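[scheduler] slot 2 assigned
[scheduler] job type: sequence-to-structure, two independent chains
[scheduler] chain ordering preserved from manifest
[runner] begin chain α
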Amino acid sequence: MDPISQILIHFALDLVSVCVLTFAIYYPRHRRRDLIPGYLALNVALFALAAVLGRSGDQGGIALGFGLIGVLSIVGLRSDSMQSEEIAYYFTALVLGLISGLPNVSLMLAALLCTLPLVVVYIAGHPRLFARTLRALVTVDEAVTEPAAIETFVRERLGEPLSWKIQEVDYGRDLTVVDVRYRRPGNARHGGGRRLRAVVRPPRPRGPRESPGETIPS
């Protein structure tokens, strides 16, 4: 098989793998459309980089390329907009691109190696796995640091506190921000509890002199 045909076949495998990761596993669970282009671009870029460096025969270039990938990964992890579980998809997209782009790996072996991280991500991030264990960022309307008071607050409003960490204590505004891991009570179900009502009113028609930024007293 000539190199171009081999690259195209491996690229097809890479596209199938990253589309399964992005559109069949990630998006149905997290619904973050803004990260999809990043996952796809990262995957395809790493596939191209691995394919080029793997066929160059330059061992120093390969080492430099993988070092560059490590630096880019560290920079990506500094993004505050990504949650911990989303970073797992980030690395999976990275690994899929590398595996598919390696020239000395057969197509069957590459397909098997691409399937393994997809299966792990699907199972490890399944919504039914540890469904009662949740995380919340709680703002307490009081500047408090006593462990007993915080645990009581969490237990009364959320459930059994498993672990928590104070993120911010503001004595000026008299509030505390706590990062809480808790277990929902066994009888609690999704969609249960108190229902919130919302009243939707049609917008008031503006007069001929009223602009969107003006406020006319009633």
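[runner] end chain α
[runner] begin chain β
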Amino acid sequence: MSIRVLVVDDSALIRDVLKKMLEREGDITVVGTARDPMEAREKIKALDPDVVTLDIEMPNMNGLAFLERLMRLRPTPVVMVSTLTTKGASETLLALELGAVDFVAKPNADLSGGLETFGIGLRERIRAAARADVRARSQRETGTQAPLKWAGSPSGALIAIGASTGGVEAIRAVLTRLPADAPPIAIAQHMPAGFTSRFAARLNELCPHTVVEAEDRMQMRAGHVYIAPGDYHLRIERSSGILKCRVEHDELTSGHRPSVDVLFSSVAKALGSLAVGVLLTGMGRDGATGLGEMRKAGAHTIGQNQASALVYGMPRVAFEEGAVVEQAPIDAVAERVVHALTRLRKAA
């Protein structure tokens, strides 16, 4: 049974391009299009689509205002089709906070810049969105909880986190609960260039830590979070007892750059048992192999559970392959990390 999609964009050209791209492989059907949120509201009621694609800048009502209303009144999987600009990146991250499942960068006005690649990415995100349980997520959201208190972690420890679809909100939920003096935290979130700097800036506003986009050879410090830059891998190395970021633009790994497998594998080599690995929501299998390497090296590994994951893909594969020591709902992940680091400290 095909996935039924409603395309919402004020450009007739973009609506036509999206329709053609979505229907190319036969498993997705565009059941309707709308040029603004007012028309979209009526068509959602009439057509009951499985997924909605949504632009942000539209007449009559801003796409963000429409998204907020839609998620509150009729939770529906939404994929944002966003412009790849600084303003567009900020608005897209806000859309993900409001409940959008994922986003894809809109093709250029002249339709250059890799339409085939754009189409592949768009279809992948629509398929993942169709499986996402946005209604359950909407019912679970209870606001930000205060950071946990603890007696501290062992010297030289590190927390590594990986995520994809649904990861923006899942990462925020974990970071806002981790103590401000937590050991260095390294994060690989599947996100293109141009978005990760805004992602880091937004987390820096919301979390008790200092959050930055990682730079090559940057020394890692407690209370700091390092985000893998879009289109670059993040690896961790230890030199003379000092942890450093290595940021490199080499080949795709597990289909991604940044890749969670690359981050986790480097952590397994550099830190062994002095690390905690966390694999959150996302489609595919990136992270499962690297998390398995971390577990074999003695690290404590945590996978987000199915009930709380927007897309139970990456953590499911890791669990099935034996890479996960324990599964936990998203609102308990930070607590499990703290417990693991506390045990490490007592054993040191």
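[runner] end chain β
[qc] chain β: The first helix runs from residue 12 to 22.
[scheduler] slot 2 released
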